[in-house]
Amino acid sequence: MSRASNHARSWASVAVALAALVLSSCGAPAVAPLPLVSGVPSISITVPLTSIGCTKSRCVALGTSNMDVAASAVGESRAVRGGWTTLTTPVPTSTVTLQGTSCWAQTCLFVGQDATGDVVWRYDGSTNELSAVSTPVRGTAEQAVSCYAILSCATIDDATGVGNRFETTSDGGVTWSTPVTMPQPADAIRSLACGSPLDCIVAMTSSNDFIDIYVTFDGGNTWTQRTSSTTAGWETLTSLTCRELVCLGVAHEQSGWHIVRTKTLGRTWSVKSAFTIAVNTSPILACSTLTHCALGGTKDGSSPWLASYDDGVLTSRKTTYVPSPILQLACGPKVCAGIGVTTLLSLRP
Length: 349
Hints:
Largest sheet: 5 strands, mixed
Strand order of the largest sheet: 28-3-31-30-29
Shape: globular
Strand content: over 45%
């Protein structure tokens, strides 16, 4: 059986809609179980998948490697309905490490680094093409990206002798603003999210393993630290997603992992659903809206774990043909997609 047939058959089963409500004998409705989420193998077993993003109409997954004679990259894309197909990638001249992805209506930016410094690749969903675009000046490593409008994104990169810097683009990566040095420039960037051109939030981990949360209300020119009794015990904050001043994220404290929410761009937080995953692993949260998300990772360190988050309720999802932990997730308005090392999957948000 051909790989194309396997892809088509697997995605046909994933796309099956939820079964209709079944009336029980006493007249109360019972909801049919959610369908299995089936994985399909990626096109390469030697180049691991590392990044994924979803626009309104397509999802795209990329991977890079230096295990062959030369640095290499692979890409695959799929429409909301249909199978995954091969995507031509830029030819890397040295090993590329992709660190972050963010999308707007029809386009995504993938950011990272190679031997020469910052790397920014742009995926155009309308043409199904991936290309390299310009990068901020003198950057050595892109750390995170957040897109908040058509052609408009913010990134944080690193520069020698400067540390973490914040930049924006309003033309999809053709040009970049003058970099602004971040507060606590030596901190490790955990997550960046912008809810508008002016309002962004960033979570960083210091060398003492404390979480530093900073926000800007003027497009990155000035930053304010957010501190509260709720966040004092947090050991990390990741997977931030914002719509204007309202944000969701995943926080870890001594008692475990929680989905957390703020309506004030980090001034106050409420702690939502709690969940348990393997020690020394990190979950991934991706949202189509702030009430409908997918959450993934691993429960035991080796097998996948996937859940749906709907209006504050977490529901575990059963997977099949997904042999390894879920490494990344992304959501568009109509579909969410995820990757393992050599596996692709999708589910309805």
